[in-house]
Write a structure and sequence with these properties.
By secondary structure, this protein is of the alpha+beta class. The chain contains 5 helices and 15 strands. It folds into 2 domains: 122 residues, 2,3-Dihydroxybiphenyl 1,2-Dioxygenase, domain 1 (Roll), CATH 3.10.180.10; 133 residues, 2,3-Dihydroxybiphenyl 1,2-Dioxygenase, domain 1 (Roll). Helix 1 crosses helix 4.
Length: 268
């Protein structure tokens, strides 16, 4: 059975506000056991989104993801055997999802967890549920994209999905959520600001693009602090938006109030 992408983490100076945005616009629900002094955690019923308060020395933005596996120790043993250069780190018990953190061959961070880990709390122990607006994909822009994609297929059992001729991306599915592994090249940032390799954006699948756009307008009118961060302003913004729009999985592109990139598509 493949691993399941069950966790995405954002780091933000406005972590409480960010949580409200995802609740208000996408209908995500916060945990029953709230931790106001720590992260805000919301869920679409499958993926938990942790929005962590930014601390000194840690950059803001889309930070890492996490997978649920049947046996974390078996995965760690496989890493030691097949990927000896990759190290693992046991995490503090205060994390509601991560029991172990590690990285892929290009240094992209991800967490490992399993259902019976003692640290598991918050939305990660609540019963699964369905809702009209849910996370569909996470995009990772990375060096050594071919090697990284093969690593995730080999270690975590993700299924390769088809791609069009000439598409350099890799589409890896856990059966519900897709990890898109995109090649990173500094040349892609000509005409705009350069973003380092790492997580690029979150994708949502929704019941109606028009309904989401209307909801964004209503939420922003009711609370201007929850308006999306401007995207595509000026020549440099247009260059960054053009790169973002190369992802074939989104039909509408925006940024959350703290600038994390989101794309949205209707359910098929």
């Amino acid at each position: 059975m493949p691993a399941k992408i069950k966790h995405i983490a954002i780091v933000s100076d406005q972590y409480a506000l960010q949580g409200r945005f995802y609740e208000a616009v996408f209908g995500m629900r916060s945990a029953a056991d709230k931790r106001p002094e720590r992260a805000v955690t919301v869920s679409d019923g499958y993926v938990g989104l942790n929005i962590n308060p930014r601390k000194a020395g840690r950059p803001a933005g889309l930070d890492h993801f996490g997978v649920e596996v049947e046996d974390a120790e078996r995965v760690c043993a496989r890493l030691r055997e097949s990927y000896p250069a990759i190290e693992v780190l046991k995490r503090p018990g205060t994390r509601p999802f991560a029991g172990i953190s590690t990285h892929d061959p290009a240094g992209n961070l991800f967490d490992l967890s399993q259902q019976d880990m003692e640290n598991r709390t918050s939305v990660y122990v609540e019963p699964p549920r369905e809702q009209p607006r849910a996370i569909s994909h996470l995009a990772l822009r990375t060096l050594r994209a071919d090697e990284v994609a093969e690593f995730y297929v080999d270690l975590l059992g993700f299924e390769r999905l088809g791609r069009k001729a000439g598409d350099a991306n890799h589409y890896l599915s856990d059966g519900r959520v897709t990890l898109i592994v995109m090649p990173w090249s500094i040349l892609d940032y000509e005409g705009g600001g350069i973003t380092r390799p790492g997580p690029d954006h979150i994708g949502f699948r929704v019941e109606s693009l028009q309904a989401v756009k209307e909801r964004l307008q209503t939420v922003g009118d009711d609370n201007p602090h929850l308006r999306p961060f401007p995207l595509g302003a000026g020549p440099e913004g247009q260059a960054r938006l053009a790169l973002f729009e190369r992802c074939p999985c989104g039909a509408h592109h925006l940024a959350d109030p703290d600038g994390v990139l989101l794309d949205i598509a209707e359910r098929r």
